[in-house]
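Let us practice reading a record.
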Amino acid sequence: MRPGFRSHLPPRVVTEIAFHFNAPDKLGYVCRFARKALRHGARIVVLGDGATLSRLSPRLWSVSATDFLAHACESDGAQMLAASPVILAEHLQDLPHYDVLVNLTPQVPSGFERFARVVEIVSSGDEMDRQDARARWRDYAARGFSIVRHDLNLKG
């Protein structure tokens, strides 16, 4: 680019991919992760199938006796989505811009590149979940993304 000229294109987001392995309670970990991310000002989309999101929603409303995480579902309408710090979604299209994508699906989601960070949470006791995670890891690596590994057993 020539000096004095500004590009009309937005800067390209370099997506950070992080795998969090050995979660004993995957949905409980999503709640703790979301609470921590929200305290740091991040806005989060949790991507999953309808059954998983239906189990997650009440847990977000009752993280502790004195704490809850306000959230909306992708079907709640544009105004609610814009106001919610956490969105539970089965699809990524037509969602407002958010910082973090927590992927609870077995595949690499289409459109993940528009997030600054993608978090993959892998169960400690589910071999199929671990196999799916290995396939997603290979997919991200084949696309040229560097991957950060967090072993939750090592963190206690």
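A brief commentary: The first strand starts at residue 16 and ends at 23.
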